[in-house]
Amino acid sequence: MQQLPKRLLSIDVLRAVTMFLMIFVNDSSGVRNVPLWLGHTEASADAMGFADTIFPAFLFIVGLSLPFAINNKIKKGESFLQILFYILSRSAALLIMGFFHVNLEEYSAASVLPKAVWGLIITASFFLIWLDYPESMNKTKKNILMGTGIVLLILMAVLYKGGSPEAPVWMKPSWWGILGIIGWSYLVCAVLYLVSRGRLSFLILSWFLFMVINIAVHMELLPFRFWLIGDGSSVGLTMGGIVISGLYARLVGLGKTQRLWLIMAVLGIALVAAGLLIRPVAGGISKIHSTPAWVMICTGITILFFELAIYLIDVQGKKDWFKWIAPAGTSTLTCYLMPYFLIFLMHLSGLEFSGMLNSGAPGLARSFAISFILILIVGQMEKRRLRLKI
Q1: Is a pLDDT exceeding 70 seen at residue 2?
Q2: CB atoms < 10 A from the CB of 76, how many?
Q3: Are 140 and 357 in contact (CB under 8 A)?
Q4: How many whole angstroms separate alpha carbon 334 and alpha carbon 338?
Q5: What's the CA gap between 240 and 286, in Å, rounded?
């Protein structure tokens, strides 16, 4: 078997597939008469559906790509403080976006602006602040655009009202939203990676510790959750990706490719089995409650799919199979935000999916088409450098 590369194209492809599926499952969640296994499982159920595997896979992929990004900065000669500032600024961006978006859930009808208008303005502000501006752009123009985005976010925060019209409340963190969870997890894991200088033994120990914390919390052995990491589930998923990335670099560097295939296969299967074994004593399987069984099973599944992706993309060279969704792997955050524009614009225009487009196979086909079309649009935006970069 040919020697594996040090830089994996399969990570971008796996990220693209995961983002495509994230848009698909979010859109199809409103489709009626579809198989139960396809959607998200209720909080009270001891089970998981296909949709419940997408977000943990994304957290794992965040971990996979993290070492490459930080190591590249180290190779460029950036200092510890420069890299730490990079980590903090990326985390802050994700937390701010997650904080604003999660408050859409409690948006009150008593607010000055309609919910759709408020949502469009904050999402557009994200682009103004974190757009991948060309280095050749006039600095004054860039600062005006970024400043406009900041002012709009502050204004939207001032105008915000949540809760009921009788008892309005201001914005609050709640569960931070998907972007916020990614932000906290990235912050913790990236700082640990930087402080340890990517030492594999330290990263493996950290991953093990996060998994133990997750188990202890859900077995009620710990009466509290930790600051920043909560029950350890999100950081456990992200650190799992970092460890696999580290193992890949170590074994490929030593020329031990066959051992890499074996370790990934055994580890993936073992984690799925461990999740099934711990299920009865640690809260069952639940994405909503982020139980150990859910974390382990999803981690194991993602490792196995990553191994398959390495074989298809980096060994067999089948990257072109996925070129139709490639922008989802290179402009991932932009892709994530695009459905917000679609939903709010449809709401303002009074358009909605109904009839056969909201039920069964035609409804699922609609969700598939929407995911593809949004990624296609992002691809055109990417060519014009209209994408977010944090």
Answers
A1: no
A2: 9
A3: no
A4: 6
A5: 19
